[in-house]
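Example record for the data management plan.
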Amino acid sequence: MTKEIIRQKPKANAREVAMDILTRVEEDRSYSNLLLNRSLQKVEMSRADAGLTTELVYGTIQRLNTIDHYLGRFLAGGLDKLQPWVRNLLRLSFYQLYYLDRIPPHAAVSEAVNIAKKRGHQGISGMVNGVLRNVIRQKEDLHPQAALSDTERIALIHSHPQWLVARYVHRYGVEVAEQICAANNKPPHSSIRVNRLKVSPAEVARQLREQGLSIAHSLLVEPGLVVEGGGNLAFSTWYEQGKVSVQDESSMLVAEVVAPIAGMKVLDCCAAPGGKTAHMAELMQDDGRITACDVHEHKEKLITAQALRLGLSSISTIVADARELGQKLPAESFDRILLDAPCSGLGVIRRKPELKWYKQEKDIAAVAMLQKELLETVHGLLKPGGILVYSTCTTEPEENAKRVEAFLAEHAEYALSPFPEHLIAKLSNSHITSSDSTELQQPTTGRLQDLQQQAKNGMLQLLPSDFGTDGFFIARLSKMSEPMLK
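Corresponding structural encoding:
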């Protein structure tokens, strides 16, 4: 009888793992969240060390241009001439010294020097030691210069590219621009969507509280719960049993705006990984037919897996470029269409902080052209009297309001349609209160009134600073039987 060989995960140093992840993000343009999850699964690490690795990866990327700005003062040759791993070792060490109060400075320096000795030679470890000790001595002098413009100051303090800050300032003013950038650097809260075909949000909230978690009902959507202290709920029995899905509140809002009802035929044009698809099926009581499309075969499997986990039979999938759907599906054959369009993703910086460094202003115009092609293709698949919802996870008007306005100018049979009444009511001043123990970020009264009016008009732009959610845009368009005279 052979003995089963149990392979143990290698023990790992939190800072060294973080350094390797940061280096791969820089060199390979990998997404930090995916790389972090894979890296933590491969090694043996305490919960505290895993938390430190996560903090160092996200924090260093979030504050990258501020870190590089100040570190450059201590390096005669600049950061660019260093080997990538050395550069990122200094970055994550500076992040600890400058931003984290709970880590003793001598510990951060000692750990960095040990990693430098292990990976490099005495000259590198000596340089690392000297730079970091100088940072400690001059830390109090590291602050923005008084002569900076508002855009430069916000970009440095909150570590955003100046071109993006300038866009925020131009649209919203200095105060709101600073709020957006500050919100982008806060860790995202955990939120779940309750599958009401299996259990009520109140019951899930009750049982999670009994397990010692802090729970608040979403301020935006009925099936949403905000959870504190629960870790990754995608690994919970609630998730496994199909009672909940992990989803941001702003993303949940999209299906609620589509508002499909039982018996309808619905098209989800860019559906993967299937969260909004499944939400629509739940709203329809799993009665009707949702055609979920994605261009990638491996992503189609994600949609199927979601439906299976949640016990939904109304979802069918097809693999296709959404720009070809006009040739693959009958015209005017759907009651509802959701186009959750590819976009710059600048509304989800808090989840993917490297996006603000990867993206350039020119990328916005390029993706806006793709969005135009998609709208031109899929709008003809909607029945007269139907609803088309266009959504993105970005904050940029060329991809959002301007894109919709351009479409409406060319298609007289379409018009903006108010959001469902219960969603508009959610944005009322009287509703935005919470007796739950979890603190939820709440907009000012003036901002709430603006959001409510946007929903009544049929186009809503949520900012990361509004409810602590992702930045999201949603437009609701109705197709008339006869074109509206203009």
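Summary line stored alongside the record: The chain has three domains: 14-141, 150-184, 248-479.
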